[in-house]
TrEMBL record:
Catalyzes the deamination of adenosine to inosine at the wobble position 34 of tRNA(Arg2). GO terms for biological process: tRNA wobble adenosine to inosine editing. The gene is tadA. This is tRNA-specific adenosine deaminase. Keywords: Hydrolase, Metal-binding, tRNA processing, Zinc. Belongs to the cytidine and deoxycytidylate deaminase family. ADAT2 subfamily. It comes from Alkaliphilus serpentinus.
Length: 149
């Protein structure tokens, strides 16, 4: 099942790529239903917080009518940054499935792991490496194209 939902997150990442946005996609699932899907829109919106995860969390909260996203899983193509990890904790998402890790800015196991700190009041299960090659390659291709431009 994780691969299926990560494929949907990759579709979102491709939408970002087409818009010349950093190609990261996110999907939130509860009870085997997609409740939100998003991709990065920082450049489009000219807004630093328009990361795929934050947009998806906002959409899910609106759809469900509350800020608690317990019983939900977030699928994201690239490891969330500290801001997004904070949003994941604040929304009480139970499980996070990551395609590829981000050794430069990742906050779910690479640089740090905010999602599993004992000092915080919520923890999320973290699963990594789902469709890792595909998630990593779309980023590599994007930055290769960006350097050509």
């Amino acid at each position: 099942m994780d691969e299926y939902y990560m494929t949907l997150a990759l579709q979102e990442a491709r939408r970002a790529y087409e818009k010349k946005e950093v190609p990261i996609g996110a999907v939130i699932v509860r009870d085997h239903k997609v409740i939100a899907a998003a991709h990065n829109l920082r450049e489009t919106e000219k807004n630093a917080i328009c990361h795929a995860e934050v947009i998806a969390i906002d959409e899910a909260c609106r759809k469900l009518g509350g800020w608690r996203l317990t019983r939900s899983t977030l699928y994201v193509t690239i490891e969330p940054c500290p801001m997004c990890a904070g949003a994941i904790l604040q929304s009480r998402i139970d499980r996070v499935v990551i395609g590829a890790m981000d050794p430069k800015a990742g906050a779910c196991g690479s640089v740090m792991n905010l999602l599993q700190m004992n000092e915080l009041n919520h923890k999320s299960e973290v699963v990594t490496g789902v469709l890792e090659a595909e998630c990593s390659n779309i980023m590599k291709d994007f930055f290769k194209d960006l350097r050509k431009r």
